[in-house]
Amino acid sequence: MKSFLQGRSWLLLSFATFLILPHSAFAAENAKLLDLTSHWVGYVSIFLFVVAYALVIVEEEIHMRKSKPVMVAAGVIWGLIALIYAQQPDSEYHHTAGLMIRHNLEEYGELLLFLLAAMTYINTMGERGVFNSLRAWLINKGFSLRSIFWITGLFAFFISPVADNLTTALLMATVVMAVGGTNIKFVSVACINIVVAANAGGAFSPFGDITTLMVWQKGMVEFQEFFKLFIPSVVNWFIPAFLMSLAIKNGQPQANSDAAELKEGALVVIGLFLVTITMAVCAHNFLHLPPVIGMMTGLGLLKLYGYTLKMRDRRTFINTTSDAEGSAGVKVEGLDRRKPFNIFQQVERAEWDTLMFFYGIILCVGGLGTIGYLNLGSQLMYGDLGPTTANILVGIVSAIVDNIPVMFAVLSMNPDMSQGQWLLVTLTAGVGGSLLSIGSAAGVAVMGQARGIYTFFSHIKWIWAIALGYAASIYVHLWLNSAMF
Known about the structure:
The protein has 22 helices and no strands.
């Protein structure tokens, strides 16, 4: 009976998917939009978004998970938008809210699945002892805390152009937490360094950040031109990293008496992770598919390998227990209470609060965009301030509002700009999120990973150093690539 119900559930899910997907294929840009920026719905939506974001900022003080207020705000905002469109006499408006929210859900769906695959790999590598072994290696090599600060920052900067900034930040933050132990000050500063480095490293690669992917897919910047942002990106990370390193005492990590060893299959999991990243890059670069296709295929490979680990563990535990019973004549209690490897336990350990937070943010900002606020802001900036000032402000705004909808608004407006200006807005949108912990996907994810240690307020203490790197990187780009303006 249970299998029958499971089969019926699968059929219902498949049928629902068949019905929903054709609607998602409608082009959102063909929807007729109302200007609600001066309507009461617009004002209420702005108020709800501000209140929800304020609750996110004080998460540590009120002990309420950050996903809760933004998810509620998103539902109310879209409910108000749909209500207004449903009341329009012209029937062409009746389906606009549905078309627009499906467009936002499609963006979120890709992000959700991408992050779920990445987090599952990271959790699995942690369960196989990869990070504990790396921690032991760093300690045994005699690296000081300051050296580890620089090593993890360098890894974050150079891995993020391939593995994307969020995945890289999660990986390096896990290493820092393992090495730092109870040294909260070191872990906090090292996490800030990792977020800044990952965002800076992602800015000079089409694969390093969602915004760079958007610019590349739109055809505004050619593939090879992104690498002209390499030196400005280095400057963006190095200046705050140098200043923060001065606050780290050059001591040694805390000694750990626990033996750190890799479990069986750990190296295979690392290899599968590298293969998965390669598939994500190739899927986008050569097959013109969303990178999430490569990530989910890689997650499928990990699940298949997880099955072999589970079956191997079962045989090992059965044989071990049988040998003990045979030699002792009775079953030895507590001989091996470990359970066989279960890949779904690693899926369960994903940072679901962070994933739900992204849902709320993407739908909230998508709702404000449907109301007309994002286009209005872009028009005021580029029309009145000029492209250079506007592009610098884009980075500052992206530290408060997610850089994805901000970049989407810029691309939608398609201002007449030189290649140098398009590279400038790519740089600022990529690294501007480093100004605040909630300004980038990497920062938000690390906040979830290092909960209570890397927080909004611990990050904002170093905003002055990050701002210096932000300003210096812009100056270097304007000087180094002046021929492109």
